[in-house]
Design goal:
The protein has 94 residues and is of the alpha+beta class. Helix content is 43%, strand content 26%.
């Protein structure tokens, strides 16, 4: 996402509104893979890219901006998460 696009979204909410960050837009498998990759390499969450900025409503006319981010450091996230699983199994066996 470009800064100009994020600025437009932020201008749509009250300046006193909260701004939140969500890793992977509530995709549990993606977040689990990111957590595992971060533990194995420490590189997964160093650089996050903004995928989207979404205006959310909590049902009480309280709008806020939720910025959706993704990791952009590890090319094969699944393989890195698998490395964590392998290391974890080795620890359990010892």
């Amino acid at each position: 996402m470009k800064a100009k696009d994020l600025i437009k979204v932020l201008q749509a909410v009250n300046p006193e509104s909260d701004v939140t960050l969500s890793l992977g837009n509530n995709n549990d498998k993606y977040r689990e893979q990111c957590a595992k990759a971060e533990l194995v390499s420490g590189e997964c969450l160093d650089f996050l890219v903004v995928d989207a900025a979404v205006i959310r409503d909590d049902g009480s006319d309280n709008l806020w901006c939720d910025i959706i981010v993704r990791q952009d450091n590890i090319f094969n996230l699944g393989a890195e998460a698998d490395r964590f699983d392998e290391k974890y199994q080795e620890i359990i066996k010892s």
